[in-house]
Design a protein that fits this description.
It contains 9 helices and 13 strands. With 289 residues, it is α/β, with parallel strands linked by helices. Strands 3, 4, 5, 6, 7, 10, 11, 12 and 13 form a 9-stranded mixed sheet that branches. A two-stranded antiparallel sheet has the order 1-2. The mean pLDDT is 89.
Length: 289
Amino acid sequence: MNFSQLHFIKAISELNSFSLAAKQCNVTQPTLSNAISKFEQEIKNKIFQRTTRSVELTQFGRDLLPKILEIIALQSQITSMANKNTSSQNVTIKIGFSPLVNSKKIIEISTFFQNENSNVKIIFVEDNLSVLENNLKHETLDIILIPAIETMTRPNEMPLYQENLLLVSAQNKAIDSVNFEDLREETFVMVPDTCGLASITRTLFRTHTKSINEYEGKALSYQVLAEWAQNGFGLAVLPHSKVHPNTQTQTIMKAGKPITIAFKAKWASTSTPLIRKLLTYFSKNLENF
């Protein structure tokens, strides 16, 4: 349970519409619907009665709404007191992320954080891994969000979220999943080894005695990578968020479970309490998006 979910409930109750509430809250409708579903699952009660034509509070929802409004009001008071206790000057936090990161997810959560911390301005920079690491080292970035190519978590790092890895191919498959062991002898189309995807693909499919088969050319975007795979140049591996919804894909499985790609946050050793507050906010809210 978190404040974002409570704000979503308030907006839906006022507008009687999931789509209008999502627009007001500056999130996508699936994001809002997913947050409400998780809230209802957590409290084991329905808040809204939904039909194809209307959205209404259940009786439990009507009973609960005053308490939710009290919590939101209290949150506003606490935020106001906290803002008065910090410097009145605006604070800028610079976040860099790999093109592989689900930037839509990150920006939505960051927007909520800024709404709750009026003195904070967040600037986003997308770049390759080596540039991000160098800028973090020289502290021209405060935080970087990157794929976790290494499984070990080091100081000044924390896990963020995971996404399923999907396979794109030229075949119209009747089944929606594929075992990764069945793909080892296939040829793969790749992007340059700058965002982390190529390294992750090679690590996943190579063996102790053999590297994976790679198409000789390199795609410069994930869209082109998927198009090449659909045209039979080879197979493409992409995180779920980087595949167009209309693209036919298969989930890559291992031992009966989807193979995922993990993402992490890294921050400068001289990070401020406000930056650590943002990192905590990411950690608490990412699962609801």
